[in-house]
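During the no-cost extension, the postdoctoral fellow (Dr. R.K.) reprocessed legacy sequence entries with the updated structure-token encoder. One reprocessed record is reproduced below for audit purposes.
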Amino acid sequence: MLTAAYYYNHIVRPTVDEFCCNNSDVRLAMLACMATLHVVDHVVQNRMPVTTKKEAELADAEVIRITNDLAERCIFFAAVRAYGTASKHGRIGLQRRFKPGFHTGSAYYAPPLPEEILVRTNVRFLHDNAGGIHLRWSEGGYINLTQSLSSLLPILETEFPELITA
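Re-encoded structure tokens follow.
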């Protein structure tokens, strides 16, 4: 099994970095979100080795608990979780508690907008100097996926110190 640190440093970080350099690429966006979302799985698998069905059930429950907790506390994780899940399934099922109905069509591309322009025009967003893919998060509310992923990595490193120690 890969260590959480190896997974993070050799899979997640390079994938996120590649997406941030090409932030209009939907394929890279999906891959970066799916890889980042699964950091929690790797951390839990390393913390809780599984040899029995009961241990597997406990580990799965811990992944769900940590994922839900992070999504409630961190909008960046919530956005990455929604896009990563929708990337895998096409649409988050209406029976799900987290962002039911969110789908990959909830994303838009917008070019960067210079700081001095203070209005939203078409799909350009106020104070957005990153551009790239934006997620329609709420009525009239959008989240920049590049900024979400870039902001999330240091948070994950703080939450899971084993990611940066190997």
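The longest strand covers residues 132-138. DSSP finds six helices and three strands in the chain. The remaining legacy entries will be reprocessed before the final report is submitted.
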